[in-house]
Amino acid sequence: MRYRVEHELLGSHQVVGLSDSTKQWRVRIARRGATVLSLELLRQGQLFDLADGFRDAAELEARPGSRFAVMAPYANRVDDARYRFAGEWHDLQPGIEGAARAARHGYLRDEDFSIESAMADEAGATVVFANRSIRPGVHPGYPYALDISVRYTLADDGLSLETVMRNVGDRAAPCFFGWHPYLRVADGYVDDWELSVPAAKLVRTNADYIPLAGTAAYQSLDDVPAMDFRTPRRIGALELNHAYAELHLDADGRARTRLRDPASGLQLAVWQESGVMLVFSADTVNRDQRRALALEPMQSMADAFNRDDCAAAIRLEPGAERRYRCGVEMGS
């Protein structure tokens, strides 16, 4: 059979492998955080890993850089770790003051997901991870109940994710999804790689990377040519930690952010069907600075819990569910 599912251990952590014997692709995903560890393909007779993921069990547990984090019930940052929802203020870090206040990337990075199913057929290899840890009283400032599942599928076009968030509580909940992959198309630094982002607007932020209020958050890329990657071009020395909005969808309903190594021609595309794309050049990570590019599809921009223009998009009623799809087209 072309596609296979395998199981292994990384230290004490269960890992599921999805492989394609025809294209010689292999993806490894850990139960801890439903975290992708590697995205291997065959290049010039040797395996090359498109992922700059966690290298061992110690990194998976310490999660430096939030590599390949499944981000829910919020993605990226919440301003001052406080938000107002349904007329009520919530504090995600009660008792903590000053610079130590920081709420980022949600609650799932340290959670062991259950493996609901893992199977392969002629169409692809799939594993479904599920988590039911988000409940009232578990996380300060988040008194809501969510069930979350993440379906990874390796198929002819690469790796896709479909996440489902279901409100299993008795009141509306704020929630949205994001994914935090670190990707590479060559050894060495990102400076020589070519990037393209099909966006019309740049999201403007303050010094803490919180988007500006209201319409001030959106700036036409015509006005900031240094940040404009609508036409593929070399990243160079540019430091990127910016979200792009108003993404252009291709005919199949996918917006594709592309990364390419001009020396080898190897490229990949991160696709999404809606939301924003956050691009981070890994200048501040604790290892291998600027040796991978984080291309982060998110349903809504950072600090969406505090934005009136995101209120309808993040509200999930009791019994309702929301889906989000994204993925990586490998070597495309």
Description:
The chain has one domain: Beta-galactosidase, Chain A, domain 5 (Distorted Sandwich). With 332 residues, it is mainly beta. The longest helix is centred in the N-terminal third of the chain and has 6 residues. The protein is globular, with a radius of gyration of 19 Å. The two termini are 23 Å apart. 3% of the residues lie in helices and 45% in strands.
Strand content bin? over 45%
Low-confidence runs of at least 5 consecutive residues: none
CATH class: Mainly Beta
Major pleated sheet: 9 strands, antiparallel
Total strand count, please?
28
The structure class reads mainly beta
Global Rg? 19 Å
Mean pLDDT: 97
Helix content: under 10%
Number of helical segments? 2
Tertiary shape: globular
Instruction: Assign the CATH topology.
Output: Beta-galactosidase, Chain A, domain 5
Number of structural domains: 1
Write the layout of secondary structure elements.
Elements: E1 3-10, E2 13-20, E3 25-30, E4 35-43, E5 46-49, H1 57-62, E6 69-71, E7 77-78, E8 82-85, E9 88-91, E10 103-104, E11 114-121, E12 124-134, E13 146-155, E14 158-167, E15 173-174, E16 178-180, E17 182-183, E18 194-196, E19 199-203, E20 218-220, E21 233-234, E22 241-247, E23 255-260, E24 267-272, E25 276-280, E26 293-298, H2 311-314, E27 315-316, E28 321-330
Antiparallel strand pairs: 1-2, 2-3, 3-4, 4-5, 6-16, 7-10, 8-9, 11-12, 12-13, 13-14, 14-28, 15-27, 17-26, 18-21, 18-23, 19-20, 19-22, 22-25, 23-24, 24-28, 25-26
